[in-house]
Amino acid sequence: MIAKAAITDGKGTFSLQDIEVSMPEGDEVLVKIQAAGLCHTDHDSLHWGRPVILGHEGAGVVEAVGELVKSVKPGDKVILNWAIPCGTCFQCQEQNQHICENNSPVVAGDALPDGEVSTGHAALERSQYNGKGIERSFNIGTLSTHTVVKEQAVVKYTTAIPYSSASIIGCGVMTGYGSAVNTAKVTPGATVAVIGNGGVGLNVIQGARISGAAKIVAIDTNPTRLEMAKQFGATHTILADKNDKGLKKATEQVKELVGNGGADFAFECTAIPALGAAPLGMVRNAGTAVQVSGIEEEVLIDMQLFEWDKIYINPLYGKCRPQIDFPILLNLYEKGDLLLDEMVTTIYKFENLEQAFADMLAGKNAKGVIVFDA
């Protein structure tokens, strides 16, 4: 079948192109994408050095399934999940499904032989562009009207929720909420500092609020984002100075606000390498610092920041267990505890993807979402 997809050349540009999507076989599922969330990783993938179908957040409807698929059927609503667990490796058995040893996605910087097309170890070459197989970002490529994915990449749901709100669960919401709840295990009455209040940071704030944190301090250089942070649960805000090296001044402000020598938990959500160590400075002795944003560069850290007994964690995807965590998030949404509709600040048509990226980079949205057929 013919579908339309956003395809990058890997050199910084993209365009909307027709592709051919094969019907599913075996354990594959054909999904008609209804909405796709945007995050900075999607923009980063423009520079991965190879052609890729963009997008890794999405929700849609199953149109067809392979003969081995058991968990979904045509007509089911599903949320896409990019960290696809095999269910049998050591990490999956340890409930570390987000770091599956068999289905690790190919990401930026991973070398590919000349001319080879790969979508990870599963090697799904079910999408054709100009007569050749093309990689889908993180195995799912949701900035496409249709996608063919492994059964383990979809989670069925029946919750009454707009596709736009459901679409953002599969990365930004899960990463932020999971970092607070699954990874750091924020405790009731705790004090929390969150550096960077974009889509992921706002969901760290939500996770901390839902966990019962007493004080949640949001730190950002963008006043608009600080106002958003209040809506999602921040009790205090700090407008940081862009020239505040390592956020040392902001760190002192955090300590004044929370007392006890610093926060119990601090989260870095900016992806700025120079701030990689900043959460360590904001936590008290024996506090927990979490580097949420996935900095993948060399960072120099003053070891005195670890004094004393501080914990520093660099988690992936909020330790996501999709079939367990997505239903939890949807239940919290139904109860009104997890704000998702409010997080979707702007909806764009597919042909306005360029503007959606521009608004994201300018920090205008909590989350921007592409809605197909809008």
Give the termini distance in whole angstroms.
21 Å
**SSE ordering:** EEEHEEEHEEEEEHHEHEHEHEHEEHEHE
| Share of helical residues | 10-25%
Q: Quick check: average pLDDT?
A: 91
Rg result = 20 Å
Number of domains: 2
What is the helix tally? 10
Which second-level CATH architecture of the largest domain applies? Alpha-Beta Complex
Globular, elongated, flat, extended or rod-shaped: what is the shape? globular
- CATH fold-level label of the largest domain: Quinone Oxidoreductase, Chain A, domain 1
Structural class: alpha/beta
Main pleated sheet: 7 strands, mixed
Annotated CATH homologous superfamily of the largest domain:
Medium-chain alcohol dehydrogenases, catalytic domain
Low-confidence stretches: 106-124
